[in-house]
TrEMBL record, chain A:
Tripartite ATP-independent periplasmic transporters DctQ component domain boundaries: 26-152
Keyword Lyase: no
UniProt cross-references to InterPro entries, sorted A to Z: DctQ, TRAP_DctQ
Keywords carried by this UniProt record: Cell inner membrane, Cell membrane, Membrane, Transmembrane, Transmembrane helix, Transport
Transmembrane segments: 12-34, 46-64, 85-106, 126-146
Alphabetical list of Pfam families matching this protein: DctQ (PF04290)
Subcellular location: Cell inner membrane
Family designation: Belongs to the TRAP transporter small permease family.
Protein name stated in the entry: TRAP transporter small permease protein
Higher taxonomy: Bacteria, Pseudomonadati, Pseudomonadota, Alphaproteobacteria, Hyphomicrobiales
Source species of the chain: Rhizobium oryzicola
UniProtKB/TrEMBL annotation, chain C:
Subunit structure as annotated in this protein's UniProt entry: The complex comprises the extracytoplasmic solute receptor protein and the two transmembrane proteins.
Residue ranges of the TM segments: 31-49, 61-80, 100-129, 141-168, 180-203, 224-242, 248-266, 278-300, 320-337, 349-370, 404-428
Protein name in the entry: TRAP transporter large permease protein
Family from the record: Belongs to the TRAP transporter large permease family.
Domain of life, per lineage: Bacteria
The organism of origin for this protein: Rhizobium oryzicola
Annotated compartments: Cell inner membrane
Amino acid sequence: MNAMDSFIAGIEWIAAGFVGLVAADIFISVMLRYFFSYSIPDGYDFGRLFLGILIFWGIAATSYRGAHITVDLVWESVGPRLKRFIDVFATLVLLLVVTVQTIMLFDKVAQTKAQNVLTYDLQIPTWPFFLVAWLGDVAAVLLIAVRTFRLVFNPKSVNEEHSTAPVE
Amino acid sequence: QDKIINLKISLWVPPTHPLVKSTQEWADSITKASGGTITATVFPAEQLGKAFDHYDMVRDGIADIGYVSPGYQPGRFPVINAAQLPFTVANATGGSAALDSWYRKYAPKEMADTHFCMAFVHDPGALHSTRKKIVLPSDVKGLKVRPAQQTMGELVTTLGGTNVQASAPESRDALERGIADAITFPWNSIFLFGIDKVTKYTLDVPLYTTAYTWTMNKDVYANASAAQKKVLDDHCTTEWAVKLSAPWTEFEHAGRDKMKKAPGHEVVELTPDQVAEWRKAVAPLQASWEKQVAAKGYDPAVVLGDLKKALADKQAAF
Amino acid sequence: MTQNFVAVSGFVLLFALMLLRVPVGMAMGLVGVTGFGLLAGFGPALKLIGQTSMRTVTDYTFGVIPMFLLMGAFVTNSGMSRELFRAANTFIGHLRGGLGLATIAACAGFAAISGSSVATAATFSTVAYPEMRRFNYPQSFAAGTIAAGGTLGAMFPPSTVLVVYGIITEKDISRLFMAGIVPGILAVLMYMVTIMVIGMVRPDMLQVAPKSNWAERVRAIKDVWAPLLLFFFVIGGLYGGLFTPTEAGGVGAGGAFIIGLLRGKLNREKILMSLLQATRTAAAIFTVLIGALIFGYFLTITGTPQKITAFLGDLGLGRYGVLLLILLMYLVLGCLMDAMAMIILTVPIVYPVIVSLGFDPIWFAVIIVMTVELGLIHPPVGMNVFVIKSVVPELTFSKIFRGVAPFIVTDLVRLGLLIAFPIIATWLPSHL
Ligand code: NA
Ligand code: NA
């Protein structure tokens, strides 16, 4: 279990690192523009490609922690047995959706490579960035599978953050 | 008895754009010619997907027909980008006819996973700036420019400027805020997006145009009956390429006189010597384009030579 | 299968999945793809997933969301909420109900940095609640004040709800931010009046605290001026033309980071914590954005938005009748889901109606934020209320809702004022 937890922590740090990179990219771009009238080549493309990476790796962590935006009206008002049934159902649907998404995203990455889509200024291929983002979605599938397994066989070990970490 | 086909036609321009109305007329003509067996719904304003994705959307069947800007995806469709080389196309009426007839030969290979319908260009756009008057290529050095497409982006880099990316609606803000100093844009769209409120100078030279295609999903075409195919073929012609884009061409063309008359705007005209200087400055772009095209197995001299010949035939070469 | 049947089934299935606690974004994506598949083929529908997901997460303009979240996280983790509360308290804490007034003032100050009403409520549950209890303020009053004060987070810029509204409707985010300021100030004043009225009616309930001297006041101000200056720089720069919304967020995050470091308030652990918080929330919001886009493409091919616009127009209720109907729908939806999900799900459908009725889209942004924020505090479900309860377990839901009730009345009055006098929202953005 400890190995699993550090794996999840690792995934979150990757996402967190990229949010820092996006912020640094934007902050430094603005400063360079005003003080030195200079733009980082492909600063715009790097910003958005890092954003993609941070979001997919973030979705992996968010899915595992059950921190997605959900409607809890029914869940709040039923007993523990039904609660658990709802949890398992919801996680299975989540697993299905994210798995399909991951497959289709792979298709998108492969096509982007085949199509030779390049960045604006430096003309470097964009597909490697897409690939790193896609790996985040692969991690999401793995983590949701773990979550589902734990929910069914060992419900106590599921990290339930939802009620204390709402979104908006 | 032909099966009824309902075409989803997707555009990424707003509903008020001249192209939307002519698309509807094109679709109505198809419906009439097919005796009502082909109908269409026009979806403007990215209702089915983003501008950048229109080619893929058509290939995948998310839309049946799409308005594609190949230059939006740097590196993917090098051949058609020949039309985007600076100082190549002088006007859109002849330019669209020339582009369409020339690209018909290359489309089946370069856009192999879709059915090519037609291609056209917009009336050549110019370089507009807010504070600094641009006359010579050297004036671009150190400027922040919002380019129309990737070829213009390369031009900016070649001349020592930097690119600022912004969508068309964001462009005015970017110029107003000094995030950009200049923009390449068609003449009348400048007024449509309110950019004229922030620009002062316009360089009056057919600096660039953007090549577009009208692209159809392969299965839609393959599954049509012989009679329906003929109707579609009759609407995917060089004549229709000119006709479909004509209202937009006229619209943009009118912007040139409007700009000349607009108070607080200076339209800069160039002497032949100055034009020659510009041509020299943009030469590296052609070299870079040649490399890309050659890498895909074409002979760049033939490709560009054919285009220039077609343009000359239609009185649209600069 | 007809378009209408598929569309209606889609909505039914969507609500069923959401009630079974399937994440809102995933439910929208699943129904959207299935519906699109039934009407236009499953091949295209599946391709829609990869296309939309990748396009959405790599859209530079959407970067504004994680950036403002990060700015808020840095400031929160630097302990600013406590400092704001202390500063407000030195000035108005000695009045009757003064701790409540200070809570509202501090919430407003915090709102100027945070984009989220839930985050604001969560923060002040830990800061202001114990203080109010120390002076024997009733549990219900203390919790109600924090729940209401929290809603200011989405009203004052920056506001993630307004950002998402701007993204969906393609409206200028800086103008939307400006539109929220005067209604936000109005909210602060009305909340304060509400507290003073409670204090007058029940003087025994709200004790008076000792008055602070000027030395204490100056010391308290020293703690909060830097982050508040950052707010004026970021929002002023956004409106005044120094940068785009995404850049404003990046500059705000960078500035908050530097201020926190210089003041010695951010250590390694707090920096990492801030990055994590911003990431998790951004991922949750983007999931809903992707789902909503896919669901939107499905609705487009069913023609639903046009049909709803036509249907509402044919009811013969007049434009204000339709507006009230829409606001009622939001109040009902507010029983079910949180603000972000509500905005993303409904705005694509409601917005064309509002525009066709001739209402001002900027004004409507403010109206809709007020309405969904009301949903965060009204029973039976209110996200702010849940958050306060999770931070302060001794509270019961009925106590919190009782404490919130006077503020709900105030909010409804304010909503009426905004509808009667749209200029409250539209004046500032049109005069700057
Ligand atoms: Na705020
Ligand atoms: Na509610």
